[in-house]
Structures are given as C-alpha cells and as structure tokens.
Amino acid sequence: MKVVISCLLFMVLGCYVFNAQNAIETSIKADSTAIVDDKYREDQFYLSVTYNLLGNKPDGVSQSGFSSGYHFGFIRDMPINKRRNLALGVGLGFSSNSYNQTLQISENNADYQYVILNDNDIEYTKNKFTTYLIEFPIEFRWRTSTATDYDFWRIYTGVKFGYVLFNSSKFNSNDGDIKLSNIDDFNAFQYGLTFSAGYSNISFHLYYGLNGIFSNAKLVDGEAIDMKSIRIGLMLYIL
C-alpha cells in the first residue's frame, strides 16, 4: 500500500510540474520577442522515493515488508561544453532510509548484540533500523535539452557521499519492545555510486553503496556484518 501511495504522489506531482513547464515553453514559443538564455543551466531541486535493499547480507538475514527511502535536495548545474548538454552537478540533500529485516539489534552490558531472528523462535511484529543522512551528490550529466526545450532525455551518473546525522532501531513483540538510537556501530560516513536515466521530469534512479552500513558490528558467533545499501526508485527533477 505504501508503494502505491508513494507512486501516486509522484505521478500527481510529476504531472503538475510537467504541465507547468509545458505552459512556460508554450509561452516562450508564442512570444517571438522572448529572450533565449544561451547560458542556461539545469539547476534542479530533486525528490526521490526508493525501495531499499540490503546487499551482502549474512546468511540467514532476510528482508520483509517495504523498506522505504525518501530523498530531497538541490544540485548546482555547471555545463562544461558550448552546447551545454554536458555538465557537472554538485549538490546538497537530505535522506531518510528504513530497512525492515531479520537482524535484531539489542544492548547488553553497554555493548550491542546482533541476533538473526530466523535462527530463533521469536515472534515479533516489527524489526527495522533507520538512518537519516545529509548527502553530497556529485554527477556527470548528459542530456538533450536546449535553452527552450523543457522535455528531454537525461542520463546522470556519479557518486554520493553521506553523513549519518541520526540512526535508530526498533523491535516490537508481545514480550516487549527494544528501541535504540545513535548506535555507535553504524558507519557515520557512507558513499556509493548513483545512476539516473529518464525523460522529462521523472527518471529511474539507482544508488549502490560501496561501503558498509555498519562499521564494527558482528553477529554473536563473531561473523562481521558488512551489509551495504542498495536503493531503487524514481527521481523527480524540478527546475
């Protein structure tokens, strides 16, 4: 249900922005005296909804439910050729990411303990951890836009650096709840590769984490936890 609602919100917002930009373009074409900006930039605000996956999971760890990500920010566009269809983009944004999975995080004598729920006879209703990051995207951008064409193909690829401002973990069961925050074992600095491709305002978006979500976390048997974040979803660009 959350997936449907998120997609519907994106479609409505996308249609609104699409119609607004079409109206601007039509107005420019109708006015022969309009001044064409041959130094235009694709400075853009962006909004994104993603489905979050965990890569490199320990054996026995699985995901359940919908793990969502919400992202927004601004990217400064810097064209690097005369046609202005190639550019570098540098931005600043905020990201919230949740992961519903079967790795329980608890605290024992000031240490954190990680247990795979699939290996234990434990009934529970919720188990997830969430991260909130400030992010710094850097992109190499290719597009077919012109100074007067607001509908164009785009392919943006690059890297995104993130700093975790806050993290939390929630476990709910009939026997009791476990709520933790600012867990030291989370990697404060995270980074990964990004890829966006699409037409007009909406693009397919992919983020592939290159380093682990956790830094020194281990299962009770001593196995290191080196899970990475993978986000797949839609990106909406607003000029």
From TrEMBL:
Keywords tagged on the record: Signal
Signal peptide positions (record): 1-22
Pfam family, one: OMP_b-brl_2
Matching PROSITE patterns: PROKAR_LIPOPROTEIN (PS51257)
Domain Outer membrane protein beta-barrel residues, every copy: 32-214
Record InterPro entries: Beta-barrel_OMP_2 (IPR025665)
Signal is among the record's keywords: yes
Protein name: Porin family protein
